[in-house]
């Protein structure tokens, strides 16, 4: 699991924002279970984090 996935799963908005501003971050990275940061945030109910990811314009929602 990446740092971004962990932050999304735990709802750490400020860390997610910081990571999204970092060059080279793969916003759609998948872990060994094929889960993405967006899926972790959504499943955990972290609406603000989901919004941050979607507003980045870089998330593949398919």
Automatic annotation (TrEMBL):
The record's keywords, sorted A to Z, are: ANK repeat, Repeat
Q: By its UniProt entry, which Pfam families does this protein fall under?
A: Ank_2
Q: Where are the ANK repeats?
A: 33-57
**Family matches, as SMART domains:** ANK
Task: Tell me what this protein is called.
Answer: Ankyrin repeat-containing domain protein
> Could you tell me which species this protein originates from?
Lasiosphaeria ovina
Organism ancestry: Eukaryota, Fungi, Dikarya, Ascomycota, Pezizomycotina
